[in-house]
Design brief:
alpha/beta; six-stranded mixed beta sheet; five-stranded mixed beta sheet
Length: 198
């Protein structure tokens, strides 16, 4: 089973077309398909050929309600706070970033992250697809000494040790990987990454 995970498209239709042209069994959009939740319907035609196998979580630029409406209107799968079984693996999805200075619509406090990650506690083997990266890692580094990820997300990874953790949000860290114990973490960015679970 091949899972294509990508994030932070921000309205880049050419990048999205390239991703949708790739062959996979499942497609996971890990947030920020557009900017400020605007014009989601404009990317729908690009996504529609894969809609039965497309799972979407909100980034910080979309609210959960935005994604729920978008998924219902066009037949996509709203994956925020949900999980599914793929070939003996549990794949979980959780959108939103931690608090930013920009007051975007998809932001959680650290306490809210702890609450929303609770359903994934004790699940193994687990693949987590999130928008927000863990704090103080290669995945959340925006520049020298600049880390903007979530402490709660890091604590979850270190405690639960999912086999794979995918995120986006910090554009400067796109493509970066880091090992957290047994967990392989990656900021997928809009280039995306194919995970083969076979």
């Amino acid at each position: 089973m091949r899972l294509l995970i990508f994030s932070d498209i921000h309205g880049d239709k050419a990048a999205l077309e390239r991703l949708m042209a790739m062959e996979a069994d499942y497609y996971f959009a890990a947030g920020d398909l557009v900017n400020w939740g605007r014009n989601l319907s404009e990317v729908a035609p690009i996504l529609e050929p894969r809609k039965e196998h497309l799972y979407i979580i909100p980034g910080n630029h979309e609210s959960a309600a935005d994604v729920a409406r978008f998924a219902e209107e066009f037949g996509f799968n709203d994956f925020h706070g949900k999980s599914m079984q793929i070939g003996g693996w549990t794949v979980g999805g959780l959108g939103y970033s931690n608090i930013t200075p920009f007051k975007t619509s998809g932001e959680y406090t650290e306490t809210q992250f702890v609450e929303h990650l609770e359903p994934f506690r004790g699940v193994s083997p687990l693949v987590m697809v999130c928008h927000c990266p863990p704090r103080n890692s290669k995945l959340d580094r925006a520049g020298e000494g600049q880390h903007f990820g979530s402490p709660a997300m890091r604590e979850f990874i270190e405690r639960e040790q999912p086999a794979h953790f995918f995120c986006g949000h910090i554009h400067e860290a796109a493509g970066q990987t880091e090992q957290f114990g047994v967990t392989v973490g990656m900021n997928v960015g809009k280039t995306g990454y194919v995970l083969d679970l076979t």
